[in-house]
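Q: What would this chain look like folded?
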Amino acid sequence: MRPIKNLFSLLTVSAIAGLFAASAFGHEGKLVKLTGTVEVQLPGQPAAPATLGMMIPEGTVIKTGTDGEAFLEAFDGGVATVTNNSTVNVEKLNVVTQGGKVISQEAMLDLKRGNIVSTLDPTKKNINHYGVRTPKGVAAARGTVLSVVVDGLGGSSVSVLTGTVVVTSTLGTFTLPVGGGVPLFLAFGSPAGTLPTPLSVAVAANPALAAEVVAAVRVVATNVAASSSAVGGSSTGGTTAQNTAATDTATSIMTAVVKAAATAVPTEVKAITQTAVAAVSSSGSATSNSSAAVAAITEAAVTAAPKQAAVIAEAASTAVVQTKVAEAVAAAKTSGVTDAAALAQVAQTATNTAQATVQVVAQTTVNTVATVVAQATQTANSPTATPDQKAAANQTLATVSTDPTAVTNAAASGANTGASNAATQQQVATPVTSPSPTVTTPPPTTTTPSTAVNTPLDSTTISPH
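A: My prediction, written as structure tokens:
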């Protein structure tokens, strides 16, 4: 009897141990969004047109045409966007679970040519292991937004908009953190000890990079608008706490990308702002009912490009009103409303509701400008600031207007433009917008000379290993 009991105990212990043992298994990615011409060659099969929802195993080759773009969910929390005229081999997809919980997820994409914009949920950085291979090396990340390019001559580069990327090449290993909110750029094959270049400097030297930066904003915005897993969303819904977390994650990622992009390419801040605000205002986004998300994006854009505060206020207001009105009318039509007067009323109601967010945009813009000016004043008067820092601060004080009238007028103009655009888009009567928002001007901030040492924003180094 005792041997049987011992055998039973042994089997029980083995079963429990097996339950909690880590197990790795091959994983398949999924095409969650497609645009234009996209071709997929599954392992051992001829190339064929891609289809939405197609499962992508290891060894698959994805090719995009001139008008093509493919959003590949490599794993939960990681979306790789293969932009137009690109070819990528899905080299590795792997997930490790323990006790029914994912403890590690891995993806390696081999970019042969073109561009991949990768969006990785930072809340999953402890389990994410993601990399993009190029002919010159590998860019590895965990919770980051990065853009990797392989040009027609085999040259490779990586632009880091948020988080940290580790670049490994035959010449060494480099760590690119986004220090002080400054996005960075590095060409693969750089000698060990090379300093990363602030992306704004790289864009100035190569204006073609500006389009890459703006494209990255659009890609992240698409993820936010669709509430993809890369920005904390889930296709299966969630609890109130999970939805709140998704809102926070999406807001945080979109805001960080806007600040990085506007810092790198301030001349494109209008398009950057409009794209981002439209995304967080979209009904498919976890942030759709959050004016706080719009405020956060407005603040990030103004902080990065304070000279264009009025332009930013106008762009944000246009995006909010246009998105909300167009979606409301489209939903009414889908539900069967066809009467012109009824649709006009839907548009007017949506416009009235959106005006509250326009007010938030105007006030946030005015507040942020005041903060920027106060910080510049403190730096200009600081005995420990460097000459370059003082010069930059004085330039800000000389060129940034603190008059709120320009901002409120711009916000009102943007709201009117948004309403008109939505009406044209949905073929309804143009709604009436409110007069210029009323804002409270923050009182002047009295500052004292700082005794802290201000580290230049572009002092981030690459650490060779």
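Residues 10-17, 446-465 have pLDDT under 50 and may be disordered.
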